Each structure stands twice: as C-alpha cells, then as structure tokens.
Amino acid sequence: MRPTPRPYGRPAATLVLVGGHESRGARDLTDLAERAGALRAVPVGRELTRVVADALASGTEPVCVVPMTLGRDRALVTDTARAMQWLTRSAGAERVALAQPFGTITHLVGWLRVAAGARRDADALLVTAPSAGPDEDAELYRTGRLVRQFGTHRMVEVAFDDGDPDVPEGIDRCRRLGARRVARVPAGFDGPLLSIRAAAEVLHARTARALHLLGHGDNGIASALAGDHGHSHPHPH
C-alpha cells in the first residue's frame, strides 16, 4: 500500500487527526482537518475508535491516524495506540495505520524560533499554550528556555491560555522587566505557529511514512506503545 501523489488538501489515505490538551481535545484542529482533507479531528478514546471503524467499514482506502501533539502531550501517542489496538482484530485491520506524532519538542522549538524571527521588532516573546498537568506545563517552560537559548530574543516568558500565569499576567511580567513590545507566540494549535499549508504538508509527510511502513507490515501501533515518541532532550541548531 504505497501512497500516491495527491493535490494539496487531499491526503493519500482516509486521515483522522486525534487531539489532546494541546488542541483542547481536538477543538482547535477543526479548520486544519477540513482544509488538509482529513475525515475528522477527534479526541482520543471511544470517538476515535468509532470514527476509524466506520471509515474502515465504509471505504477501501487505508485509514491513517495522526496524533496531534507538538511534544508536550506525553500520553497522547500511547493512549491513541491503546484505543486502536482492538481494531487490529476487526475487519479491514490490514488497512489501519498509526502515524508518527505531528511534532516533537525539537520540532516545536524550531517552529517557535522561525515564528520568533518574524517578530524581531518585539523586545520580548511570550510563548503561550493551553495548560495541562504540572509536567506538561513545566515542559513549556523548558521549551521557552530553549527558544531563548537558540534565538535572538533575550527575553522569553511563558504563560497559559487558561492557567497560571495567564496571558495578561505574562504580558505584565514582560513589561515589568522592561519590554516595550511583547509578541505572543502560540505553542499550540490555536494560533499561527504554522500556516495551514505548512501543517498540511507535515500531515501528508506523516501519512506517507505511515503508509510506507504499513506496506511492509508495520501499522505503527506496537512501536507507539513501546516508544518514547521524541521526548528526549532536544539540542536544536
């Protein structure tokens, strides 16, 4: 089952996006899913397995599931693999594939650095994302530190859309530290971290790789259950 080239917006499989806290339970993925040609964007769990099972039953294409994490949702890939495990015993199991996650912390740092480069007129960057648990929130602080280390802005602060500190508090902190212009850079799926076209290209690359492996008998589920999904400490250059 090798992927065939398709025009922009039409992936080489029935594509399902699964979201966690970085996309507010997939709510921030709706526009991307529609414009990238995906079937649905869903939260992990029963809705995911139902959508994939229905797609297998109603079509003949492979069904590829992409975990939509930027590296902060450590559980999303494993939870997605667990939700898909039972599908391997159902009809059409040879057509289901779990792709590599959309991104890792290394990708996120690189994408944030590119976004920061377009905001050179700002004195400070405020990296924002939806809040989650303590570990995931701490990961955003580490991400901000890496953006500062390898970027051009000497002031990089972190805030959470619905957490502590929130965005107004983050902006206030930057200004108290002397910043006159503060640029907010989202580190989730609720802002222009990547254009729709760029995000679609990433999705199509993940799909192509997953279908290549599927053609060699690897549906990605076992490796997702066993792997660390790119959560090593990145050293971007």
Overall description:
With 237 residues, this protein is α/β, with parallel strands linked by helices. It has eight helices and seven strands; from the N terminus they run E-H-E-H-E-H-E-H-E-H-E-H-E-H-H. The relative contact order is 0.19. The chain is 40% helix and 15% strand. The strands form two sheets. The protein has a four-stranded parallel beta sheet, sandwiched between helices. It has a three-stranded parallel beta sheet with strand order 6-5-7, sandwiched between helices. It has two domains: 123 residues, Rossmann fold (3-Layer(aba) Sandwich); 82 residues. Strand 5, helix 5 and strand 6 form a beta-alpha-beta unit. The N terminus and C terminus are likely disordered. Helix 4 packs across helix 5.
